[in-house]
């Protein structure tokens, strides 16, 4: 498992975790974690080897990805009870999504393993950009 119960102790106190899980089962907690992992994978999959990133365990994991995944999982746990959601939780989730969007666009960097081809060479995509906005010149 990519996320462990010990990871939660860094971001939330144990009593807050207990409040969140009041009406939840272990299955719902794991489902929220899987949703968060899939969400992060969807943003990173174009440039980074998400299979390798999320197969790591313990200290081999990237701590920033662990933090972002936890922020997303905790946000998903709070979603059914929005009145209990602290402002910091919503802000941390938005910060995580903003960073993931930057990395997905190629405007941010991450110390993560890049996608490689069968011969082990790092793949890099070609991206065309322009400082001019797109225009529709149909008459």
Account of the protein in words:
By secondary structure, the protein is mostly helical. The chain has helices at 5-11, 14-20, 26-44, 50-55, 63-78, 87-105. Helix 3 (26-44) crosses helix 5 (63-78). The longest helix has 19 residues, at 26-44. The radius of gyration is 18 Å and the shape is globular.
Features:
139 residues, 6 helices, globular
- Strand percentage: under 5%
Radius of gyration: 18 Å
> What's the rounded overall pLDDT mean?
83
> So what's the overall shape?
globular
Q: Please report the distance between the alpha carbons of the first and last residues.
A: 56 Å
Which range best describes the helical content: under 10%, 10-25%, 25-40%, 40-55%, 55-70% or over 70%?
A: 40-55%
Runs in which pLDDT lies below 50 for 5 or more consecutive residues are none
Secondary structure: elements and pairs:
Blueprint: H1 5-11, H2 14-20, H3 26-44, H4 50-55, H5 63-78, H6 87-105
Summarize the structure.
The protein contains 6 helices and no strands. The protein is an all-alpha fold and 139 residues long.
């Amino acid at each position: 498992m990519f996320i462990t119960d010990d990871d939660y102790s860094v971001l939330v106190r144990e009593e807050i975790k207990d409040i969140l899980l009041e009406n939840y089962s272990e299955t719902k907690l794991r489902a929220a974690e899987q949703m968060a992992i899939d969400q992060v994978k969807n943003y990173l999959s174009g440039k980074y080897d998400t299979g390798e990133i999320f197969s790591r365990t313990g200290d081999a994991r990237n701590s920033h990805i662990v933090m972002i995944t936890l922020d997303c999982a905790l946000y998903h746990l709070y979603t059914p009870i929005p009145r209990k959601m602290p402002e910091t939780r919503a802000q941390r989730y938005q910060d995580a999504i903003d960073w993931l969007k930057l990395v997905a666009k190629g405007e941010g960097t991450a110390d993560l393993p890049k996608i490689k081809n069968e011969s082990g060479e790092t793949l890099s995509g070609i991206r065309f950009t322009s400082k001019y906005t797109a225009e529709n010149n149909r008459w």
